[in-house]
Specification:
The structure is a single chain. This protein is of the alpha/beta class and 155 residues long. It has helices at residues 17-30, 45-56, 90-100, 104-119, 127-143, 150-153, and strands spanning 3-8, 36-43, 64-68, 81-89. It has a four-stranded mixed β-sheet with strand order 1-2-4-3. It starts with a strand and ends with a helix.
């Protein structure tokens, strides 16, 4: 059974958390992950900036940071599959949704999928890796009709 813990450390109320859970469960199924355990933590820009500085040496806020527990070995036994933690800045998500002209719901879904794929060791260090990861993200978002706007597509 999937065990996803959502923790909101902001004052902002997240609308339609049910849809975000559905998207994550769909992604888990699509990636054939058995009984994952992970946390999704919503924070503000100040907190994610501190995390980014402490763990990545980058002194600025970002949208999503993932701490994958797999790191080339799987912490799996017969009863659980501990994947890690996803931190999402709600401030940054709001800014990006506005910038790209789409809903906050779409932006949060994108960041959740992106973070989850990082937990599974997907990355975007090379163009080939980026293409694979971003295509998976778009396919999942399209399944839920959370499509990109014309502004984003450059049309």
């Amino acid at each position: 059974m999937n065990k996803i813990e959502f923790i909101n450390k902001t004052l902002f109320k997240i609308k339609d958390l049910k849809l975000l859970k559905e998207i994550l469960n769909y992604t888990i199924s699509k990636e054939k992950v058995k009984d994952p355990i992970f946390s999704v933590v919503f924070v503000n820009n100040h907190k994610i900036k501190k995390i980014n500085k402490k763990y990545r040496g980058i002194n600025k806020s970002t949208d999503v940071i993932t701490f994958a527990f797999l790191d080339d070995q799987t912490y799996v036994n017969e009863s659980y599959n501990l994947l890690g933690e996803i931190y999402i800045s709600l401030n940054q998500a709001k800014k990006q949704a506005k910038k790209y002209g789409h809903s906050l719901q779409r932006e949060l879904a994108f960041l959740l999928i992106h973070g989850f794929l990082h937990l599974l060791q997907y990355d975007h260090q090379s163009k080939e890796e980026e293409n694979i990861m971003f295509q998976k993200q778009e396919d999942i978002l399209n399944e839920f009709r959370l499509t990109r706007t014309k502004k984003e597509n450059g049309n």
